[in-house]
Every structure is written in C-alpha cells, then in structure tokens.
Amino acid sequence: MQHPLHLHHPQPAPVHQGVHAIAHVNHNVRHGRSNCNGDNSHSYSQAAQNTALPKHIPVPYIPRDGDVLFEFIMFLFTVVCCALQFLIIYRSIFWLPYSFNEFALNVDVDIHLIVFIGVILMRRLVYTMVSRVGQAYVSSVLWPAAQRVIQLIMLGWVGSVILFCLYNIMHTHPIVKLFYLCYPLSLYFILFGLRVGPFFDLTVFSVSESEQQSKSILSFDGSPLHNCSTSPEAIREEVDFLKSDINNRMKQVLFNSVFSAYYAGFIPCCFATTLMYYETYWATFHILWLWLGSFVLYLTHCFPVRYCDVMHRCALHLGRWHRLIMPHSNVHWTGNKLWPFESVVKHYDKLYQALSSTNAAEPGNPVHNRFYDLFQNPSRIYLVVFTMHILMILVQLMQLATASEWYQAISMASVLFFNYYTLYKLLRDLLISHRVYKAERIVKDRENS
C-alpha cells in the first residue's frame, strides 16, 4: 500500500526539472533512497489533522565512482604524492656535466621501507578487487562469512609483509623510527577497536544483521534508507542511527586521510638520512596538500548527494525547537506526538516554540538541533567544502607560479591534477543539490500560500 505522502498532488507551474519530479516520488524506492512503505496510515491520519507533513523531491541520478575505481584513484594519488616527496628529498642535479647521477633521483632509499609504504597504501585496493570477485561467485547467504575469511587472509598477508619489513628496517635504522612506522596503527585501535573490517573497507555497519532486517534501514549496499514515518519515536530512533552512521563515516574519512598523509608524506622525511639536505618548506606543504586532498576525496565519496538527501528528509520530519523567554504555556511536551508549526510547549521548566511544519525532536536536545541545522539544506555543506577546496587550489596555483625549481613545478602540477577532479565532483554536487532544495522550498512556499 502506498504511503499517503507519495500520492500524486496537484503540481504548481514548473520551476525546473526538480519540481516536475514530485509526481514520481516512487522513483526513490526503486533507487534505494527511501523506505516509505505505508505501514503508518493510522498514525498518519491522526498526525495530518494538526501537522503538514513534508513532501520530498527526488534527487536525480548522479554518477558516482564505484568502490574499485575510487580505491584505484586514491591509491594512484597517494603513490604519486609519495614518489613526489621522495623527489623533493632525493632530487639530483643529473644535468651537470660532472654529475655522478644519471637519474633524477639520488636513489638512497631503503627498499624495505618502500615495500612497507606500498603495502599499506594498496591494502584497500587489493581487498576491494578480491571482494568484488568473491561477490560474483559466492551466494549472498554465504557472503558475510566469506567476507570475514577474506579480511583475515588480507590481515595475515599485510601483517606478515609488515613484520618482515620491520625486521629488516630494524638492522639499518634506529629503533625509535620503528615506533614512527607503528604509531598510526595504535591510533586505529583507539578509533575502531579490534575490528578488522574498517582497516580494509570504508563501509561500516553500525547494526547487526537482525536489526537490519527488522528495521529495514539499510539498503542492499549498506547505505541508510529513509523511512517516512509519522511516529515521533521512530523518527528519533532513525536520527540516532543516522547520527551513528555519520560518526562512523567521519572517523573513516579522518583516519584514512591522516593515514595516507602520514605514510606517503611524513615517513619519507622521517627516514631521510641526516646528511641529506632538502627544503623543509616544500616538504611540509606537500604533506599538507596530500592530507587536504585525501580528506576531500574521502569526504565526497563517503558523503554523496543521495546520502545527504536521506539525512535531509529525516531532518524535515525531525524539526526544530526555539527557546522562548517571555511567553507562558501550560502545555507540556510529550514524545508521542508530532507538534505542528509554532506550537509552544514546556519542557524541563523551559519554553520552546516549534519552527518546522512537523516537529518530533526533543526540545533542547543538542543532538537533534545540530542534526537539523546541518541537514536542513545539505547544499550549504557542499558550499563550505567547495569554498575551502577553491581556496586550497588558489594557494597551490600561487605556489606553482612562484616555483623556481623543476621538482617544485612537477609536484604542484601533479597535486593540482587530482584536485581538479575533486573540484569537478564538488561543483556538480553543489549545483544539483542547490537546485533540488531550492525547488523544494518553492513548492513548500506555494502550498503554504
């Protein structure tokens, strides 16, 4: 049975293609973005008497990099940046007539260190390719167990190579440098505990398989779904789950971006010989650009437009309360009711006024307030990230224009090449999300008028 929110409504004059898509809200379900299954018709009839439930405009299809392609791009980006850092440190003057070097690099790098960094950077790419092959030949029933087996095999392979490299590095470098190599691994245990999955896979499942089947809050690929519920308790539970999923994704973004910058940028400097002179200024900025570039790449992949649209839809159902000082009210807030716009309630001896058409949030709850403020209009998030990325590219262009050495120009041009690709994705997501949510506001204003 179709949810009442998804019945066809009379449409206003078309504003753009996003408004025309209102008549096809069922398209969301086919693309795994919504779970409006219509099992709340009774509660809907009660809530509809006092509240105007929000209507959602579907986000158009946006091409997104697959997991294998994304991991390949990340591996290529980090490997190129690592090679450029070695170039900054071990560059040679091979063009001089009396130079003893025939190559651009004065090769004096421990081969075990290179193998160590390479295995660390390629671990997720290898795991993702093996997982895609396994999913093609293993049934969906046996896949969870097979996935754990693959993770354990990958952990054994990576662990054995790391131990072998550490053993050989120990004979040629001070013991303290071994702690530099192992420091990020200790940070991993602080963030993720003893779980093996997050080390190889960006997808983090926050609930058990039984909860996934009972709540139907995850799609087939692990992305959360939105349930257009009229139950305030269910809306708040959905917010709690989505908040947990956001935190897990942000931990992955922060850890992996720092992890990549540490091993591809800092470790080459850390293991440079004491007699080797290199420009600390350029090496430091190279680490900074590597970290920022990795951070934005991970951010755009883990938080695509459709994912943020799920948060936006939930935020519209959640609503927000504003604290009042002067008015007086004897109506106490209850958690089993959807409160309409401009309702004034008392909660813990404080007065609040509803700011949204539907309000299921708890008055004064900072988690609910932050969730609504962030995802009321997700295009603002993309605007902030896009602005920061533009500023970073402008600074890099200034450094490229003022570069006086050949290796400086090569390093900046290579980093800018990857940043232009991220800039295109950010601009595309910003424009699409802005047009969709602008159309949503226009439709809402016309219905209210």
Automatic annotation (TrEMBL):
Record-linked InterPro entries: Uncharacterised_TMEM39
Coiled-coil features, chain-numbered ranges: none
Keyword Flavoprotein recorded: no
Cited Pfam families: Tmp39
Ranges annotated as spanning the membrane: 68-91, 111-130, 150-169, 253-277, 283-303, 381-400, 406-427
Subcellular location(s) per record: Membrane
Membrane topology listed for this record: Multi-pass membrane protein
Family label: Belongs to the TMEM39 family.
Protein name: Transmembrane protein 39A
Organism of this sequence: Megalurothrips usitatus
